[in-house]
Amino acid sequence: MSVLEVKNVTKSFAIEKGKILVLDNVSFSVGNDEFVCLVGPSGCGKSTMLRIIAGLEKADSGEILFRGQPVTNPTPKIAMVFQLFGLLPWKNALENVEVPLEVLGIEKEKRKHIAEEYLKMVGLEGFENTYPHDLSGGMKQRVGIARALALKPEVLLMDEPFSSLDELTAKILRELVLDIWRNPALPTNTFIMVSHNVEEAVFMADRVIVMSPRPGKVIGEVKIDIPRPRTKHMRDQEYFRFIDEVVELLEKSKDKADIESPISLAAKRTDSF
Amino acid sequence: MRKYLISFIGGLVILAIMTWLIVTFVPYEEIKSLPLYTISTVSRIIITLLISVAWGISFGILAATNKWASLILTPFIDLLQSIPILGYFPMVIGFLFVLGPWGIELAVIVLLFTSMAWAIFFGVLGAIRGIPTNVAESARSFGLTGWRYVRHVILPAITPAVVSGANLAWCDGWFFMIAAEYIQYKGDVVTPPSGGLGTLLAKAAYIWQDMNVAIILLVFITFIVVYFNTLTWHRIMEKATTGTFKPVFRMDLSGVGKLGIAKATSWLRFGRLHWPKAFSTASQRLRKYSRIEKIIAAILAFASIFVVLFIVFGQFPTFAIISQGFNEPPSAELSYLPLLIAMTMGRLTIAYGISLVVAIGMGVLAAEHKKFAAIFYPLYDIGQGVPILALFPVIFLGLKELIGIDYVALEFTCIIMLVLDMIWYMFLNIVSAVKNIPTEIREVGQLFGFKGLKRITHLVIPSILPSIVTGSILSWGTGWNTIIFAEYLPSTNLSVPGLGSLLDKAGYEYGNTVVLIFLLGIVAAIVLSMEALVWRRLLRKFEKYHVEV
After folding, report:
1. Rounded CA separation B142/B43 (Å)
2. Which of A224, B296, B336, B399 could form a disulfide with B409 if both were Cys (CB 3.0 to 4.6 A apart)?
3. What is the C-alpha separation between B16 and A71, in angstroms, rounded?
4. Residue A54 sits in which domain range?
5. Per-residue pLDDT tens for A139-197?
6. What range does the domain containing B413 cover?
7. Which of A206-215, B137-146, B236-245, B275-284 shows the highest mean pLDDT?
């Protein structure tokens, strides 16, 4: 049964002269308990796709269905983890986790309790009163994850969550995320992650959706059926075969448009404000 | 290009028509010289600008590349720039007035120079120090040394700073024009023989006391300033600021030109890049001096005081001369000093409070809603264009008619002047800060459902707090500069009690250099201790609020 359905989503951004098409008729669905990875070259609109799913941006046409209901605005059922963490620098770790709960109207004692619990879960016990300024990159992302999970969402969106971390930290956090995903006690069990790191995608996902350079289209899907935990299988022939398969899809799409236009990239950045 | 020509010629035509109308219909004899006065003021400011640029570039390069020059020049120039124009009166008068009419012309230029030159120097210094190590090293590895290094690395690197600094100097020149072209000393008024717009405006306001004429002249002057800004500076700055290593001036003002104001107002051909006048004061102050530099600065300060006293009294200052200075008027008022300081601080605080609240409101609205931006940005542009000092007499005459009591009118005028002066620094800082709130933080707000007031208090205000502090430092800096002129109405004996008006009395009315220097020292002490006790602490506290991107 699919939890989330992306149906014929098209999105373009206005630039000084006309528009550029970023997403062209993108459709896919994500099942319950599934871990899906969106992979594509930079600028292919995968982050935009994620933002549309989150309700942060509106699609020009097409729709997002969450359990059959269209998503148009952000909802606590779908939470997001950001590439640059998105922590509020003027709030400490605990307060950062508490803030969305406060907006939901949860009373003070209770939200503090929840926040502490989730911070503990991501391994940040003892850092509750530390400000983002004094946390390392990996710790900041742990706060980001705890903040998203504290809302008890059904779907967790992650926008390149490990790409601003060093490889060692990223490796530890990938395991943490997978543990959370597998944890039956948590209501959050559908994960959608955007990445441009093919190995990361193959390591983590049940299914890798490959997108083409702009305008972003779904050009292929690779079902990864390596048994979990996959740490044991990272030297297997099979693992590399999957990687090659994804890379091949990416390479094929590259022939059409291999040069990134700087103008449209800049336009995309300003317009996403 | 055609559009440019049209606005160029159109502007000149409007200027000519305005001149003709004023000359024909304003019934004062001296108004007939308006064309001449306009030319002399414009050329005076241009000449001073050229001198300032030449001086700023050469001394800036010297200070940035030579360790010893830096050690002595930088603190000394920092000291000079923090002295208000009034502080230069005794020296200028002692030195240059003896040379006759040419001396007076020269004196006006020197006074203008003292309020124009510093921005360029500090801009050049900062730009050279900001050349990335890798660029400097690669240049050296390719054998670029000496003059070649200057030509291929330093000059391109400082161009944007020089252009922005020159624009600042230009604005400052107009700001202080009225103070420099109408020199009042020991009861006498000295104006440059070739006249000037500042002279004319001062006469209209203080001698003829004709508000209509004053307003007309003010509009005329504002038009000239905005005209030049739109036509030349915006274009030059646009060209010059591309291809630099980093924003020309830091202090959280970076990127305003490109991102916010320009975008919203380009359709009006209004405001491209603006840099507040006092940026250099604040940024230099905030840069911590090393101990040796502090010592040198202190020695230089004392030395310069002695030099000034020596020039004024024609002999080495003895204890007798100094104590004589403290016996002459207005030293009797020195016994009220704490009260006067309190009153001046009170005015500054009220004006600051008003500016803060209004600027936050306006800044947040302008940065978040295009509709408000379309109103506030042009307002800002004109607000920055009006020479505040020239506005002083006009506001006063208006309020006097309205209220009827001179003293109350002056009190209100003083606060209005301060607000008009302080508010734009806050506004500019806040707008750029709101614009620069990182996308992710905005998205977090959206995702977690912050709306309305909660969004403002949880997201917007905290993220702009550091910029509010920088804006406050700039506002207070310029506020101190302005209050010296705002508490005292030249050519009349009207003043409101305060530190500023006492300074004016010592400077203008009695020419008491000893008291003047003493009071300037008091002002410096207050400014510095406020920085140490309030601003630096706040800055350090809010440092971590900065979102790392």
Report:
1. 43
2. B399
3. 62
4. 2-77+189-271
5. 999 999 999 999 889 999 999 999 888 988 998 999 999 999 988 888 888 999 999 88
6. 318-549
7. A206-215
- The beta-carbon neighbor of B446 closest among A74, A85, A270 is A74
Cα end-to-end distance, chain B, whole Å: 39
- In whole angstroms, give the CA distance from residue B459 to residue B532: 28
What's the pLDDT at A177? 92
The answer to whether the complex's ipTM is over 0.85 is no
What is the C-alpha separation between A44 and A39, in angstroms, rounded? 9
Q: Does B309 map to a domain?
A: no
Peptide bond preceding B497 in cis form (omega within 30 of 0) = no
In a domain, B282, yes or no: no
> Which of these three, B202, B231, B248, is where a domain ends?
B248
pLDDT of B264 above 80: no
Q: CA A3 → CA A74, A194, A211, distances in Å?
A: 16, 18, 21
Q: Over the stretch A214-260, which tens digit does the pLDDT of each residue have? A: 788 898 898 888 888 888 888 888 888 889 898 888 888 776 554 44
Q: What is the pTM (predicted TM-score) of this model?
A: 0.72
pLDDT of B140: 74
In a domain, B535, yes or no: yes
* Separation in Å, CA of A158 to nearest CA in chain B: 13
pLDDT band (50, 70, 90) for residue B525: confident
Mean pLDDT of chain A: 85
- Domain of residue A210, CATH code: 3.40.50.300
B546 touches chain A (CB under 8 A): yes
Distance from CA of A236 to the nearest CA of B (A): 38
Shortest Cα–Cα distance, B458 to chain A (Å): 9
Count of domains observed in chain B: 2
Interchain proximity A90–B438, CB inside 8 Å: no
DSSP B9: H
Q: Is A56 in Cβ contact with B440 (below 8 Å)?
A: no
Structural domain count, chain A = 1
Which of B203, B232, B248 is the C-terminal boundary of a domain?
B248
Long-range contacts of B104-109 (CB under 8 A, 24+ apart): B104/B190, B104/B191, B104/B192, B104/B193, B105/B192, B105/B193, B105/B194, B107/B183, B108/B44, B108/B180, B108/B181, B108/B183, B108/B192, B108/B196, B109/B44, B109/B47, B109/B48, B109/B51
Residues B240 and B326 in one domain: no
Do B242 and B337 have their domain in common? no
Is B447–A89 a contact, with Cβ atoms under 8 angstroms apart?
Answer: no
* CATH number, domain containing residue B500: 1.10.3720.10
Q: What is the mean pLDDT of chain B?
A: 77
Residue in B closest to A271 by C-alpha = B439
pLDDT the model gives residue A256: 57
